[in-house]
Fold these 3 entries.
Entry 1:
Amino acid sequence: MMRVQDVIRGAKVEISVSDWGSGKIPKAKFPLSKAGKKAWSYGAAWQWRFVEFSYAGRRFVVRLLVNLDKSKASAHLAMWNGRDLTVLCCYEYHVDHVTGWHLHTLCGERNDVDTAPTGTLVHGPWVKRLPNARMRHRKTAFTSEMAGRQDAWLWHRTMRFFRIEEKGALM
């Protein structure tokens, strides 16, 4: 049994990073057969970037979506399943929740990547929010106050959360 945390903590190989894009996301980059068009249609204010990697003989992809004007970001970790994806978790921040960075992930007895539903975003009774909405969140800032591009800082945060080694061109 492979769990979501195994993928996050595991040693990743064959890492490939895309350039930043904006607006509509190409479906081939993040195919979800059961998701509506909202899974790809974003306005020009939204930026996106992908990183693909292998772990334990399987291929995975992380999609980062960022809207700096709305202080929103979400990073979906998904596993390739033929021509479709199985979304395993979503690490996100949205200012309207006023809580901070949190994770929606498979949990409990359903925390097996092979039993997760394919072709849809993370939702259902087997998904848990960590930390709970009423709990204190340790990471509450959307971006860093340090000088530099905020999108680059959010990319770094995503790479660090999913424990993907950053080497020069990955930023």
Note: The longest strand covers residues 84-94.
Entry 2:
Amino acid sequence: MKIITVLIFMAISFLANCQSKPAVPKTPKTTTTSSSSSVSIQNSDSSYSFKANFDSDKNEKVKRILTENLDKKQMINKGQNLVWQKSDDNEIAYTVTFKNGSLKMNVDKELSSGNAIKKFIELGEELRETISNN
């Protein structure tokens, strides 16, 4: 009888322990940031174009690269937007439009010199690297 009582007591205590709530680990604190950018470059025999969209944290870097590499005489400041445009005989040789988070460059190779075209291609590569890197 003692053995049966001990076995019943052990079974009840075992079942009581199985019913306790398991310890739940704390949820770790995480912060996520998302970044999105896109760059498109088209280089044909007659034109070169560069289009990019990027996060606003890269605005100052992109703006600095443009102002260091493009002729200030060709720049038009439209508030937050900057536009560089060069025309020859009422035809546009190149246009660069910078808006917060956006950049477009179009170069007409037939109206631009070889040095200017090379400069825009190099500028596009520098901008692509700046925009694509986090």
Note: The first helix runs from residue 2 to 18.
Entry 3:
Amino acid sequence: MLCPRHGAGTDPTRLVGRTISRIVASWHVCEGERSEAPLDVWLIDSEGDSTRISTGSDGCLIVESAAPHASHDMGEWGRIEVGEDLGDHPFLRHLGDTVARVSEFAVPETGRTQLEIGFGDGGRVRADCWQGDLRLTR
């Protein structure tokens, strides 16, 4: 799924058959308030590969091979906190589960717009870009 600005990224179907062994997320924290949803999610699988799911400035959904970055301070704009136990999101209930299927959806103008990851227990998580933010739903 080629995004004109960010390229094709990683083929997320490589996750099929792999177990999610760790989940890391980043959150924006400003004046003591944390963002409602994570900015990025990294799925670290049983092969040790890390898949980052995030949004692009053009409304695309970025899926790429990338290791989690460190937390960092942005001065008056707050801080980006990165870690495994920082907040709740739908992927957390699938820690230790095996990915059974992956579906992608795209439009020509922005590339990938939605990613759905299904697990062996019948559960799924859908990631999309909604008003510029990463949205994760069951």
Note: The mean pLDDT is 88.
